[in-house]
Every structure is written in C-alpha cells, then in structure tokens.
Model the fold of this input.
Amino acid sequence: MARTAPEPLTPRLSRDVLIDACLRIADSEGPEAVTMRRLGSELGVDPTAVYRHFRDKTELLIAMADRLLIEAMRGFSPSGSWRADLRDLATRARRTYLAHPRLAFLVAAADAPLPSESRISEMALGALRRAGLPDNEAVLAFQAIEGYTAGTSSLDAASGPGGGEAWRRAFAALPEEEFPNLSAIAPLMYREDEAAFEFGLDLMLDAIEARLEAETD
Amino acid sequence: MARTAPEPLTPRLSRDVLIDACLRIADSEGPEAVTMRRLGSELGVDPTAVYRHFRDKTELLIAMADRLLIEAMRGFSPSGSWRADLRDLATRARRTYLAHPRLAFLVAAADAPLPSESRISEMALGALRRAGLPDNEAVLAFQAIEGYTAGTSSLDAASGPGGGEAWRRAFAALPEEEFPNLSAIAPLMYREDEAAFEFGLDLMLDAIEARLEAETD
DNA sequence: ACCTGAACACCGTTCAAGT
DNA sequence: ACCTGAACACCGTTCAAGT
Done:
C-alpha cells in the first residue's frame, strides 16, 4: 500500500526560531526564566535539541543580543548634527539595555564584537570624527560614552522598580550630624533615572563641544 | 570521673568569618567559585551552616560588598578641591568594581542602600555642593558620575583580559567601504581602559566646572 | 544555640540512541 | 540531519535531627 511521505524534512528548529522563543520568554517572564528546559517546553521540543543549533547557552544569548541591537538601530541615519546623532544612538542603546539588564555584560564578555556592535561603533565614531575630534580623542570619547550608556542603563535596569522610594526613606532616616548633605538632599535622590542619564550624557557632550571650540581657536 | 568541659561554646562561624572566606575564594578562584558548598569546604563546615548567619546567599554577598566598599574608602578625607575629591572617590570605587565584576549589580539590586554607600554618597554630594552646584543639579551629577564609575568599571572587568587585541583584529578585518571610520581607527580601539575611564570622568568634571563658571557670571 | 545531613527542586551539558 | 532521553555534575535552599 501507499506509504506516507518520509518524516518531515523541514527541521522544526532554527537559530531564528530559538532566538524568537528566547525573546518571548525574556519579555514575559524575565531573563532568569530563559533556561534550556523552559526553551524546550516553549517549543515542544527536548531541551537538549538547542545544542544542534548553538554551541552553548552563551552563544544563543549573544545571538539574541545581536538581534536586539540591530533592531534598536533600525532606521537610524546621520542627521547632520553629530551631537543629535550621538544622543540618538545612546538613547536607542539605553532602551535596549533597560529592557534587558544582562545584555551589556554578555556583549562585554563576548570574545568577538557582535556585527551590530561594529555597525554602532562605526556610526558613533563617524559622528565624533565629523564633529572634528582627532582620532585618538574620538576613541576615548567613544569608549567613555559607550561605557556610560551601557553601564548606567544596565544598573538602572537591575535596580528594582520603585527602588528609589526605599532609598530616599533610608537616606532621610540617617543621622543629620553625620550625613548633613545626604539628609538635606534625600528627597531629591533617585527620582528620575532618565533625567540623570541625559544630564550625564549632556555633560560629556558639552565638554566635547568645548574642547572642539578650544582647538579651533 | 571528671567530665571534660561541655562542647565548644564559641561558635565556629560568624558573619565576619564567612565574609573573609568569600573574599579569599573570590580573589583566588573568581567570583563564580563562591558557592555555598565551596564555602563549607573552605571552612570545614557543612554548606548549610551558612544559613545560621545569613538569610540567603544574596545577603552574604551584599555584606561582602559593604566590607569591600568600606575598605576602599578607608583614609579618604576631603582635600579642599571638590574635583580632586570626586576623582579620588571614583578611582577608589573603580578599583573595587574592577576587582569584583558583579559587585555593582548586587549593590544596585539591593533593596536598601549599604552603609558604605551612604557614606560614599555623603562624601560625593558634599564635594558637589562645596563646588557650588545647586541641590537639584548636585543630585543629577552625582547619579551620572556614580553610574558612570560603577557601570564602566564593571563592564571593563567583565571583558576578558587581552580582549582588546581580539577586537582590534576583528575591526581591522571589516570591509573598508562599509566601515570607513572603524577601519581607520581600529588600531587605536580599546587600548587603555584606564585612560578612557579618566577621559570620560574628566569630560563630566570639565562640564560641571564650566557650568559653575557660567552661573557665577 | 549552633551545626549536620538528607532531600528537594532546580541548573547546563554530554552522549549514545533513535528516526 | 535532526531530535530524544537518560545521565552527570553541579546549583541554592529547607527542614528535621543531632549535640
């Protein structure tokens, strides 16, 4: 009798399908929920099937990071203002790191730059050189802004939501004689992560601008 | 017959003894080696004995972080120059975060400020207020500098030693037409984490200084 | 009061086996 | 070529029991 066609030739898994599942789990249940077993259950597949497509979990997460950073930069194009460009790039990266607290660490610990990272670096270095910064300073400024953006955003993401309130209360409760500054300023502390991030970014950009003016004198 | 004295009244464990053991293990084998079982073997004690002194592992690591930050600030005293003070505080904190890559995350995720952190905040806010910054700006500047220092240092610590060399090679190998800036600058990238950190810190301090001068005009 | 030890509910990963 | 499933070597933590 007629035999049915041989078993499915199309693989059920692929790198993209796995990355999609990672993102779905991370977004709905948090990054700590992304385990091989959870991934297997999400896709109705044995947990160890993942190893047919990625060497290990780190390689999978790195691929996810690359996807997220590419997505974050989609549609960016230089505006004519180096300052606006750097702000735009930093803001896009920040949003990604806020949504995925562990991403920056993964990227930093990788043993090669992600493709997305090369593209971001290219764009940011382009902005700094167009601004007129000499190459040696462009590198230092790039590293400073990159570290600031990735670092502060990751730490902001790690601090629990509504954590600011608890810290203000703790600071306000400290003895005034020993902590005169903190006592006085307590009500203002950690109110707006976003404002603090932009303040610090603008400090750096202001100083770069001042440096450029000094050099053209 | 004479009975020996009752069993040892002095506990074999204490919070300080456990923190010491953590530091010994972290320094010699890296932070990932600090497990409850390893802690037990280090002290010749059952791994679960730790729970008599700390609620969970996080509480233990937070106590370790507090110890390290107190140690880092030992001997600091205001110099008369707000700028030198902030630089000194940031450099001390950076050294600690470089030596312990996960510390900043722990501190950020804690549900209350560490005692050491209150003291550091008090000193840094004092410097910014002495500089002449209004309170609302002092808070933002403090948060920016704190995040920059903790963030970049933690990320620098996470990147493998000698990682810079691999990244330079990868950047140099990119197609020049698509990555003109990165190709040109590749040999200069990620050469000196320390120089980049100080460059970024000085950018922020320069901008704060400029702001102060503008306000007194 | 403090520590032990078995046990539980997890991890990432390897490897021989299936289809 | 791709997936399964048992197994290994780990984790943090709980709880009843010992002394």
